[in-house]
Structures are given as structure tokens and as C-alpha cells.
């Protein structure tokens, strides 16, 4: 069964075509600059052939037509006929409190996603454009499924998801912690239980998704009990360009001093802060690490803050779950930055983490495995995430 997985942004469209027989990605691609000019890059994963074209993409419908063309024709062609695609799965960032699991798309579902646009103004409107365009190009007969980034977090108890502001604002605006990266946390926690050869129902797992955006989640018996991102993906700890949690008074103080509008505030907190803001160099850990190793004090400070805050979050989730059996690192940084992993594990040795330094240093660039000694009471794993596969699995389960 072939399933097309779609991640539609406001000016981009990423896709993967997954053969569920073996769970293999057979094609992947990206349309960029939709609404500006337009470019598609498509790769046949079996042959390695890449198709590239700069072509006008005034909207998502035209972008989907380019995807269709790249899949069935040209040098990177993977299938003869579009009819071979049996279902489409869409990634949706914000499902709010409306959706606690993946669902098959109908008009009511689209209206539900639309009603949550206020909570995810950058993402949900683009997802709806993507869904509508996909239906237009692939036809109504191909079933489509939506998989929500925060559905996995819907098991959080109120003491974890409520913000202590006047209750009326929760009632009026549904302001609370929703969490993000849920599909990734779900995938790596399930895989962690598999690697441990144990039922997830008996495990306490802390999953660290560390990329340009980053979040940490506490998962007890397969259910999320707390997660670091909040109403939006800004909360938690320091990220590539985002602050993570800071004293809100610092924000109102700066608004008063600098005369920032809400939009300007948003830009500073989301795009100019974090590792980039502290280091003044880059949001990419590779650049910041290189500068820190050359003696740049602000680059080192950015990494010190990052490592410290990650350790602090893990510690707080051990307290939240009253214990932990396994910790997982994933995301671009979690999968590659072994010095960060070593620092976090060594400083948490008192909990019962015995790092295997050699395993840690070689488990990079897509490798999977334990980085703790076999007799370590708490296991630590590096597990490359695969959100697309999770979306494809949910889609297959729902359309079968
Ligand atoms: P993501 O958002 O998951 O793509 O992660 C992006 C972050 O991962 C960036 O800060 C990169 O520096 C880091 N990263 C990605 N690949 C590597 C790599 N091969 N080695 C070191 N860091 C990497």
C-alpha cells in the first residue's frame, strides 16, 4: 500500500511517498516559494535520481500538480499511475482540545482545524490550503487523514496543562499547554519500549526532541504526563532562535522600553532569540560549537544554557513521574551532538545513568542504539525520529 505523507506550510510543501510493505520511503520532495515564484526538488529514493524545476507556483494546487508530475514522469519518476497511491496523510500542527487522535478528513474536520487558526496562525491556515489543494488534485476518492502534532499530549492532567492565569481566560480562549512534536515523541517512545523489549505500559520514559525547535516530554505507561512546549512552540527551554520559557515580565518590560508591537515581540522571541540571540553567531549548533571550540565566550554560553536547561527539564520530569526507566535523544541535535548528550548523562549519573562514552560518540548520523552501559539502571537511547512513518501508519490504520 502506497501512502503519500504531506506537510504543507504557508509557502512550502514537503512530501514523502511511503510503501507500507516494508515501511520504506520511496520518494521525497519539497516545493518551495509557493506564492512567490516556485521550485520543486523531487527525489526517487530507490534510484537516487533527483528532479529539479523552477516553475510558477501561485498556490498549493499548482504545487500539488508539480508533485504529481514528478511522481509519475521525468527522471525521478517512481510510479506509473497516481491511482497507486491509496491514501494521503497530512501533518497538522494544532489540534487544540478538539482532536485527541488522528482522523479521516471530512468537512467537519476541516471546519474544526479552521476554528483553531487563531491558536496556530502560521500553520493551520497553510494546512487547510494544503488539504483543499490535495483533494482538488488527487480527487475525493482518495481517502485523506490528518495527524495532529499535539494529539499525543492530550493525556496530560490539568495540573500539567493549566497556566495559573485567571480561569476565565482558559474558558474564553482555551489558553493552556498543548505541546508539540507529539508525533515524534510518540514514535521514539514506542521504539524505545521496543528496543527495551518491554511493554510501554510499564515504563517511565523521557523523550528529548532536540532540533532547531526542541521539546522534552514525560511519558508514563505510554501516556504523556507533561511536555515542555505550551500554547505555542515557544515555551520550554532555549532553542535555535526561540527563547523557551522566560519571565513574562521581561517581555512586558521590553515592550514598554522598546515600544514593540505584539508582532515585533513575536519576531524577537521566536526568531531572534535562543542560541542565535545569545551567541550572535548562528542558530545552527554546528556553527556555534565550532565558535565555542575556538574560544568564543558567547557561543560557549549559548551551549552552556542549552545543556543546563535540558538537564533541568529532565530532572523535573523524573520528579513528575517519580522515577524514570529510559531517556531518549532525537532530532538533529539529539541524534548528532554527542558532547551535549555526554554532559547531560554524566551530570545525571547520580540518578543511575552509566554512560558508555564510546557508544555515545559513535551513535550519530542516523544511527540508533543505547548509549549507556548494559548494566545501567536507567537506559539512554539515541533514536532517529520518523514522523512521516508515524503519519503513514496512522493513515493506513484509519483507511484500512
Ligand atoms: P532539526 O531541526 O531536527 O533538523 O535539527 C537542526 C539542528 O541539528 C541544527 O542545530 C544542526 O546543527 C543540528 N544537526 C543536524 N545534523 C547534524 C549533524 N550531522 N551533526 C551535528 N549537528 C547536526
Radius of gyration from the alpha-carbon trace, in angstroms: 21 Å
Q: Ends: how far apart?
A: 10 Å
Elements, N to C (H/E) = EEEEEHEEHHEHHHEEEHHHHHEHHHHEEH
By CATH reckoning, the class of the largest domain would read Alpha Beta
Enumerate how many helices there are, as a single number.
16
| Ligands present | adenosine monophosphate
Please, what is the CATH homologous superfamily of the largest domain? ATPase, nucleotide binding domain
Mean pLDDT equals 97
- Order of neighbouring strands in the sheet with most strands: 5-4-3-2-1-6-8-7
Largest sheet: 8 strands, mixed
Examine the coordinates and then state which fold CATH places here, giving the name of the CATH topology of the largest domain: Nucleotidyltransferase, domain 5
Pairing-aware structural class of the strands and helices? alpha/beta
> Uncertain runs with pLDDT below 50, 5 residues or more?
none
Report the sheet-strand fraction. 15-25%
Q: What gross morphology would you assign?
A: globular
Helix content: 40-55%
CATH architecture of the largest domain: 2-Layer Sandwich
Q: How many strand elements?
A: 14
Overall structural domain count = 2
Question: What report would you give on this structure?
Answer:
The protein is an alpha/beta fold and 400 residues long. The protein folds into 2 domains: 2-148, Nucleotidyltransferase, domain 5 (2-Layer Sandwich); 199-387, 2-Layer Sandwich (Nucleotidyltransferase, domain 5), CATH 3.30.420.40. The protein is built from 16 helices and 14 strands. Strands 5-4-3-2-1-6-8-7 form an 8-stranded mixed beta sheet, with helices on both faces. Helix 1 packs across helix 3 (124-138), helix 10 (285-293) crosses helix 11 (297-321) and helix 11 crosses helix 13.
Amino acid at each position: 500500500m502506497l501512502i503519500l505523507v504531506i506537510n504543507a506550510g504557508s509557502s512550502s510543501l514537503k512530501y514523502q511517498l511511503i510503501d507500507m510493505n516494508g515501511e520504506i520511503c520511496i520518494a521525497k520532495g519539497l516545493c518551495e516559494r509557493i506564492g512567490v515564484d516556485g521550485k520543486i526538488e523531487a527525489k526517487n529514493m530507490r534510484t537516487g535520481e533527483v528532479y529539479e524545476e523552477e516553475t510558477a507556483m501561485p498556490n498549493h494546487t499548482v504545487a500539488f500538480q508539480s508533485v504529481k508530475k514528478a511522481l509519475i514522469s521525468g527522471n525521478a519518476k517512481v510510479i506509473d499511475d497516481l491511482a497507486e497511491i491509496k491514501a494521503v496523510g497530512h501533518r497538522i500542527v494544532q489540534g487544540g482540545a478538539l482532536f485527541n487522535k488522528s482522523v479521516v478528513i471530512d468537512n467537519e474536520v476541516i471546519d474544526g482545524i479552521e476554528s483553531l487558526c487563531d491558536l496556530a496562525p502560521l500553520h493551520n491556515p497553510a494546512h487547510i490550503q494544503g488539504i483543499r489543494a490535495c483533494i482538488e488534485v488527487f480527487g475525493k476518492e482518495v481517502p485523506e487523514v490528518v495527524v495532529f502534532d499535539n494529539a499525543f499530549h492530550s493525556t496530560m492532567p490539568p495540573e500539567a496543562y493549566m497556566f495559573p492565569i485567571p480561569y476565565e481566560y482558559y474558558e474564553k480562549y482555551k489558553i493552556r499547554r498543548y505541546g508539540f512534536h507529539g508525533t515524534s515523541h510518540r514514535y521514539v517512545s514506542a521504539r524505545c519500549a521496543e528496543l527495551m523489549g518491554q511493554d510501554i505500559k510499564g515504563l517511565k520514559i523521557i523523550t528529548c526532541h532536540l532540533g532547531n525547535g526542541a521539546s522534552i516530554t514525560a511519558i508514563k505507561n505510554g501516556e504523556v504526563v507533561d511536555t515542555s512546549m505550551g500554547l505555542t512552540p515557544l515555551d520550554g527551554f532555549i532553542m535555535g532562535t526561540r527563547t523557551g520559557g522566560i519571565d513574562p515580565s521581561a517581555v512586558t518590560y521590553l515592550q514598554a522600553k522598546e515600544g514593540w508591537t505584539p508582532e515585533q515581540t513575536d519576531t524577537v522571541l521566536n526568531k531572534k532569540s535562543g542560541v542565535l540571540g545569545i551567541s550572535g553567531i548562528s542558530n545552527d549548533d554546528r556553527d556555534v560549537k565550532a565558535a565555542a571550540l575556538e574560544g568564543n565566550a558567547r557561543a560557549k554560553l549559548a551551549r552552556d544554557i542549552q545543556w543546563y536547561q535540558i538537564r533541568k527539564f529532565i530532572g523535573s520530569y523524573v520528579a513528575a513521574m517519580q522515577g524514570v526507566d529510559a531517556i531518549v535523544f532525537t532530532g538533529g541535535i539529539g541524534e548528532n551532538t554527542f558532547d551535549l548528550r555526554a554532559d547531560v548523562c554524566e551530570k545525571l549519573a547520580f540518578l543511575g545513568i552509566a554512560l558508555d562514552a564510546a557508544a555515545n560518540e559513535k551513535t550519530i548520523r542516523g544511527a540508533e542504539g543505547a548509549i549507556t552501559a548494559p548494566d545501567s539502571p536507567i537506559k539512554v537511547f539515541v533514536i532517529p525520529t520518523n514522523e512521516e512513518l508515524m503519519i503513514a501508519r496512522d493513515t493506513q490504520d484509519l483507511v484500512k
